[in-house]
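Bench notes, afternoon.
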Amino acid sequence: MGNQTQKMENTKHRRSLGVHLTSRDIFVKYIFPEIKSRLWKHSWIDLYAGEGNLILPILNSIPIEKRTQFFTEHIFLFDIQPEMVKKCIRNAEKYKIPSKLAKLNIQLRNNLENFPEFMKRAHFPLFHITNPPYLYLGYIRKHRETQKYLELFKGKNEGYQDLYQIAMINDLRNKIENLIYIIPSNFLFGASVSNKFRKDFLEYYKIKKMIIFETKIFEFTGTNICISFFKRKAEPKVESIEFDGIKIKKKNTIFEKRYILKPEFKFRAGSEFDEFLKEYHTQIPLKVNFYLLNSDVIENKGNNEIIVIDANNYQNNEYKKKILHINDFLKHKVESNILCVRTVDTGSYIGRVGLGILSEDFGVDGIYVSGNTYRTHPIQLFLEPTINIEDQILLKNYFNFILEIFRKKLDSEFLTTYKYSDAEYTRKYLGLTQVRSLIETLPIISMNSNDKLILKELISSKDFNGVILFLNKFKKSKDRYI
């Protein structure tokens, strides 16, 4: 019991600081090869050093007789935790650095609050390599032990969403030219959590390279992370950012890609999907509403029975079924809309996000929300105007086909990572805005019966290029929209 309590206290302490200690192996394998030719040209600093694992291993490459000189002029480490500073000093001593010198260049300091100005007087240009604290603003607000950080997000930092963003913007304001940051991959793929920060930061910095991990590399967090190599631009400029990315996936498989982050899509990776949604938004789209709410049922009581699952009642790995009594209007509305959306991958390939048919997936007429709405529940779709069952099935097949094409093409990067798990692939989350926007690319209201047959065949034969030509035909045929 005592060990369990201690473990919980340690976890709480780590979370209160946003700390995730870095393995020495990460430095040796992924970072050192990028800097080994420049060791004597920079002062190597880590403002959030922990035990020093991102800087001290440099000393393995320095001859013992030169280490004291090198350490004196080239290594400066800081941390906010006294116990980490002590460990860092002990680790430096293992590299034969004199204790007195180690204590001089390894200091206790809170660098999130302000940058150490005295470091700008170092003999060599500063090169910052760090695994900064990361803690999302939403978490900070909810927990008493982390609310002390709220002050950091005020004034000029208003709108930023994570401690790592505060660390990086401090470097930007202090004109540090070279950065290597180990940060959550939401820097690259996140929407609201990162849109403002990417816009502000990437006006000043290029991304030289990025190594993205979809495997768990830290013991105490499931956060997906990336190692990001940044170089300050000669002049601030809003422009597309291009770089080579390496993604390390489950079972150490590698996915390599040339990334292009575009300002018009808020520098978010995977924007090719957003470009598709924008390019092919039809002029007369289907409108979609979500959720069969308890208020709808109360307002439309009647004698008709329908069978539903209750999205708020999940027990023994299934949603519980119930019978609702409703009037003719609501019965017709529910039974005329046969589609639902799964917004979160289950972790198996047969349970990926996309549209489904209620009767096939759940054996019911509808999905009832007895309590609060949650975006991660299966959700019933209500289309306007109502389209027939055959057209809804075509919409489902079109939606899932396009979604899977882009998941394969972009390695699902336009979706939000749901959370780290041991599933056979990285689980993703599909936003309702994305659901609506993809539905609005299908010009089904303007399609005749022959168009529908053609599209059905293109999807059946998995002809993506053919589908694009089909959609382009509707874009160009303005008379269809009159």
